[in-house]
Design goal:
Number of helices of chain B: 7
CATH class of chain B: Alpha Beta
Shape of chain A: elongated
Helix content of chain B: 25-40%
Radius of gyration of chain A: 29 Å
Largest sheet of chain A: 10 strands, mixed
Shape of chain B: globular
Strand content of chain B: 15-25%
CATH superfamily of chain B: P-loop containing nucleotide triphosphate hydrolases
CATH topology of chain B: Rossmann fold
Largest sheet of chain B: 6 strands, mixed
Strand content of chain A: 15-25%
Helix content of chain A: 40-55%
Oligomer: heterodimer
Number of helices of chain A: 11
Strand order of the largest sheet of chain B: 6-7-8-3-9-10
Order of helices and strands of chain A: HHHEEHEEEEHEEEHEEHEHHHH
Structural class of chain A: alpha+beta
Chain lengths: 370, 265
Amino acid sequence: MIRLAFRNLFQNKARLLISVGGVALALLLILALDAVFAGVERQITDYIQHSGADVWVSQEDVRNMHMASSSLPDSVARRVKSMPGIEAVTPIHYLTNNIVAGDERSLAYIIGLPEGASLGGPWQISSGSALPGKEEVIMDRNVAEKSGVGLGDEVQILGEDFKVAGLSEGTSSLVNSVAFISARDFEDLRRNYDSFSFLLVKVEPGDSPQAVAARIEAQVRDVTAQTTDEFAEQERKVVKDMSTDVITIMNAIGFLIGLAVMALTVYTSTLARRREYGMLKALGADNRDLYLTVLAQAFSSVALGFTFGLIVTLVLSLLIPMSGSNLELEVSSSSLLKLSAVSVVIAAFSAMLPIRQIAGLDPAMVFRGR
Amino acid sequence: MTNASLSIQGETLEIAHVTKRYGSGPTEVTAVRDVSLSVMPGEVVLIMGPSGSGKTTLLSMLGALLKPTEGSIRLNGVDLSGLAENRLPDIRLRQFGFVFQDFNLLSALNVVENVAIVAELAGLRSGAARRKAAALLTELGLGERLHFLPEKLSGGEKQRVAIARALVNEPALILADEPTANLDSKIGQEIIRLLRKIAKGQGRSVIIVSHDQRIRDFADRVLWLQDGQFQEAPEAAVDTFRPTPMQDTTQLSSEWKGQDHYSVR
């Protein structure tokens, strides 16, 4: 009966193309959206993960960067630096603002770096300086290209002019980019000379970031200390919380489109073969044999659609970065698992109506064209 | 045919006082009324009658596709009318062979697969089922057509595939519903000869329901069904009820010319 299912499936090429194509598009919608958000989650934590820090110290209860503000007094840096197990600390300033180049405005995390900072700077430079001097900015190469600026050109940050002194790689995402100016310039812009935003901590070899973070929280008042991984996870959580509704709605739309396409094609396919199924019943085929045929057709179509959708997504994930876009598609194992479950549900549900139709078939219909 | 002949002992099929009514109250219709019939192994019975006479209902009951309202239908001693619905598919699969007016082949499967699938349903493994189907089809002159799709076959070839499908599980009874209706006269007669050869050579009973006057000479008995009852046939339709000529099998069988005989499209 499985052979019959496959032969039925491949006999009508147009119907097969519609069902597989429809399901592939629906699953592609789900998978690509997941991949986009997974890519954004990774991109948005790139700065945190590449900061070189083992522990991030912030104002109490501030647990991430995105849409957050943290302010720590200078004394915190001194206090933490004097603690055992600490190899290095770097206080950084941070705010979210626009980099303005002519008519182009691009949102960026503006990071204020102290002179000679060992942590928190750009991790890959394509050209120019790695650390900003006075009235200099190091900005993302992609953003610079899109804004039409290069090394030596001027951009505006918080109304002040900065010369592009370096171009960094991997510092832009779909949402924003990261730009680096000197801590002194940042303090002048904000007229704030006795505080900073985050303290980046490098732990001495042999000590664990978790233990150091716990020690900092125990010994320094009004701060939150998290390992880099914990801090990044909190950042991802913010993105997830912001995108959950969108993903849920789009997933539901994808699911419904896939279900509608599959249900319609499996139903019409069964309807077209109603007489053949009736004949098989008359010859003595058990209802279960016929259900198996319909289920095999539905599952095969969905499996083909799944494969096709996955291939397209993987190809897109390779092609899109080559086009110079900040968009990154990342196919995660959890997304594949979710898609597999969605596919199984689509296949099973789409087979239900045809199965009911077969169950109600009168095998005596085979006589005299009834 | 390679199959061993069935032993000829008692009736293959015996129906006694079978009635089938549809609906109830003022809308009640009696399609078949108090019909009795015995069919011996190897016997070819032709049932004729005008449209609306109850032939389809009777055929459906004979094929265990429909339960009678009253009366009993026994196949090889087993009372089919007393069996639970869920046991009937297996009875149909193993005890009945069906030949239909429209051939009813599965359009997506090739010739050998169309036959083998019925053997597989009866529990034969795929390879064995295909070998059995291929052997049967070759005997019926379709050895060169095993991998053709039904759409590539002539009407006569399609009906021979259907006959092979009906035979593959070695049934006791073959029910043929208008088997010549979609065939020209010559091919139709060849199909009926083939059914008769199977009946006589293998001892399987064959019941044919047909309007085709040209095939009545191939039947051992011709029955006329009208208004749901067996009646004396009108002269223009059937000459007479003939006795069972079991002895003429050799002569009729010898008329079968095998593959070449069926090369006509």
